[in-house]
Structures are given as structure tokens and as C-alpha cells.
From TrEMBL:
InterPro entries: Cds1, Cys_Synth/Cystath_Beta-Synth, TrpB-like_PALP, TrpB-like_PALP_sf. It is found in: Cytoplasm. One of its GO terms (molecular function) is lyase activity. Its main location: cytoplasm. The keyword Lyase applies. The gene is cds1. GO terms for biological process: L-cysteine catabolic process to pyruvate. Belongs to the cysteine synthase/cystathionine beta-synthase family. Cds1 subfamily. This is L-cysteine desulfhydrase Cds1.
């Protein structure tokens, strides 16, 4: 083994140690029980991923992507890390790049919240802004090439960088925390899809461990995931990831940061998903605001997307007299969105009126029946 190769291995060994040590110092995220009317017979649990050091669900993904890059020999001492991200993944990757002493560049749209950009810069990263979501892929690849760096490509590698069998992934954590509950095996797990990695991990875990739990994925307006999943159902579940059916609404970018994509991403695995629900963007905002009023939990809009789907599934369980539990995620904290989704002027400027959907939620909680 030559000296340069030995030095590369020694640096990579130390990098893996640092990342594993960071994980070892970290406690698991909380699983909250949300108060619901007792006569409904349904328990709702919220896995609060906002309590990670970098404030979101993407902390897990960033850790896995760095380890994946290191063990594959793609990340070396001095490598510039480049990522295409709408914000939260970039925040988490900036943190891990700083931990390893590596430069980091995030490629994102100009509409990304200022709060997220500030967090990326706080962790030593820099931001490269583009006009449209469809431009981030090529821009990130070009930057990685021009800097001699590594394009992390979360949209390709998210589904393979995490061990879906267990190894303290999010699914194993959820089931461990539910062990002493009245209904320890949930009827549904509900998540959104940005890369598709979380739904792929949970869906595979459920099948591997032979749980009867069903996986529901919620999807915002304009995203290609929902029509892609529908196409996969008619095609026997074999639609290839990375291919797109007819683009919804001309492939417009999602207005809900962190989830929804203008194309089917390689990490999105339709065959492990039991049910999908398309959620209006204004309904995501309404459910996000309702969570704060009802439970005092301050979350971002992708959490609202999760909850809009959750409330419909709970209404079905109540109507069927089915007792059990449902689990969903708090993806990140609401303080990252003070200037947009919690700002009435910003909502009006973007044509988002959550009030009719808030009325739907009030009626649901009054009657226990989802309005027709």
C-alpha cells in the first residue's frame, strides 16, 4: 500500500469515527402522544425530528450520505461537498462537512427561506442559488466537477445509503418507542416524500419485519410523485424510479419546502407504498397552524402536509370503528418559516389561503367526521 493511499485510509477512518461519535453523543428524538378524543379509539404519535442538532429529519439522511460517501472512497480529505437541496438537507450536510473540515456548497432555488440559508452559512457552508427547481441537478453536478468535489446527490442515494433492516434507522426507532403503548404496532405510518428515502426505508422495514402496518405517503400540489405512484399501480408497481409520467402542472416546483419534486426521483420506490394522498398546499399550512393551536407544537409546512393526510386516515378509522394507532413525523421546526409560511403577507402573495382548510379541521374535531 503506497503512502498516499495509507493517508487516504487514515483520514477516512478518522472521519467515520467522528461521525459515529457524533451519533453516539446524540439521544433519540421524542415520540409525542397527541391528545385526541378518547371515544375515537385512535392514538396519534408524532416523531419529533426537529430535535436533531441540525433541526430536521434530514440530519439522519446527511449522516448516512456522508458515511456512504466515505466507505465508497468518494469523500477524501479536502473534498468539496456539493448538494442539490431545498434547504434542510443542506443545513444538515453543512454541519457534517464542518465536522470533517470540508468545504460545502448547497445548490437551491432562490425561494428557499432566508432562515435556512442563514443556518447553512452558520455551519460554514455557502449557497449557490438558481431560478427553478429543475436546474439544481445540473448546477450541482457542474459545481462538483469544476471544484474537483463530490456531488452527494441525495435524490439518487437516499434510498440506498440507509440500512432499511434496522441499525437504528427511523423505523426501528419508532417501533422501539411504541413497545409499551396500547397499540405498539401502528395501523398507519404517514410520511411525505422529498427524496423518497424515508418512505423507502420505512416501507422496506415494514416488509422485512412482517408488520401489518401500512405506509401512506402524502404529496403536495404539482409534485410528480403522486401521479408517478398512480402510474406504477396500473403498471403492477414496476414504474422505474427516475422516470416521469406526464408532468403535473407543467412540472412546477412544490410550494411546500422539503417535499414534492417536479420529477420522479431515483430514491422514490412506489412499490413499498400502500396509499398516497395529494394535499392542497393551503391545507398543509392550515394543518401546520392547527398543530400549534391544538398541541402547542411549532412545526414547518411539510409536517402540516403529513397531518392533513393523518386526519383523513383517522376519520376513516373512526368511521369503521377501528381502534389503533398512527405515527407521523414532525419534520422540522416552525421557526425556520417565520418569514414565509407563518407570514400572512407572504401567504397572500403566493395565493395560499389556509382559512377554508382550518374550518375543515375545526369541523372534523367537532364531529369526528371528515367533511365531504
Amino acid at each position: 500500500m503506497n503512502t498516499a493511499h495509507q493517508q487516504d485510509r487514515a483520514w477516512a477512518d478518522e472521519a467515520v469515527r467522528r461521525i459515529n461519535a457524533e451519533s453516539n453523543r446524540s439521544a433519540d428524538t421524542h415520540l409525542y402522544s397527541m391528545p385526541l378524543p378518547a371515544h375515537w379509539g385512535v392514538q396519534l404519535y408524532l416523531k419529533d425530528e426537529s430535535t436533531h442538532r441540525t433541526g430536521s429529519l434530514k440530519h439522519r439522511l446527511a449522516r448516512s450520505l456522508f458515511l456512504f460517501g466515505l466507505v465508497n472512497g468518494w469523500i477524501r480529505e479536502g473534498t468539496t461537498i456539493v448538494e442539490a437541496s431545498s434547504g434542510s438537507t443542506a443545513v444538515s450536510e453543512a454541519y457534517f462537512a464542518q465536522l470533517l473540515g470540508l468545504p460545502f456548497i448547497a445548490v437551491m432555488t432562490r425561494t428557499t427561506s432566508r432562515e435556512k440559508i442563514a443556518l447553512i452559512e452558520q455551519f460554514g457552508g455557502s449557497c449557490h442559488l438558481v431560478d427553478h427547481a429543475s436546474e439544481v441537478y445540473a448546477a450541482a453536478a457542474d459545481l462538483a466537477s469544476s471544484t474537483g468535489g463530490h456531488y452527494m446527490d441525495q435524490f439518487t442515494y437516499a434510498e440506498r445509503a440507509t440500512d432499511w433492516r434496522g441499525n437504528n434507522n427511523i423505523a426501528e426507532s419508532i417501533f422501539g418507542q411504541l413497545a409499551l403503548e396500547e397499540h405498539p404496532v401502528p395501523h398507519w405510518v404517514v410520511v411525505g416524500a422529498g427524496t423518497g428515502g424515508t418512505s423507502a426505508t420505512i416501507g422496506r422495514y415494514l416488509r422485512y419485519h412482517r408488520h401489518p402496518t401500512r405506509l401512506a405517503v402524502v404529496d403536495p400540489e404539482n409534485s410528480a410523485f403522486y401521479p408517478g405512484w398512480l402510474a406504477s399501480q396500473s403498471d403492477g408497481g414496476t414504474l422505474a424510479a427516475g422516470t416521469a409520467p406526464a408532468a403535473p402542472a407543467a412540472g412546477l416546483p412544490s410550494r411546500i419546502e422539503g417535499i414534492g419534486r417536479p420529477r420522479m426521483e431515483p430514491s422514490f420506490v412506489p412499490a413499498v407504498i400502500d396509499h398516497m394522498i395529494r394535499v392542497p398546499d393551503a391545507a398543509s399550512v392550515a394543518a401546520m397552524r392547527h398543530l400549534r393551536e391544538h398541541a402547542g407544537l411549532h412545526a414547518g409546512p411539510s409536517t402540516g402536509t403529513n397531518l392533513w393526510g393523518v386526519w383523513q386516515l383517522i376519520a376513516e378509522m373512526v368511521a369503521e370503528g377501528r381502534r389503533g394507532s398512527i405515527v407521523t413525523l414532525i419534520c422540522d421546526a416552525g421557526d425556520r418559516y417565520a418569514g414565509n409560511y407563518y407570514n400572512a403577507e407572504w401567504l397572500a402573495a403566493h395565493g395560499l389561503d389556509p382559512e377554508p382548510h382550518e374550518a375543515t379541521l375545526r369541523e372534523f374535531f367537532d364531529r369526528g367526521v371528515w367533511p365531504a
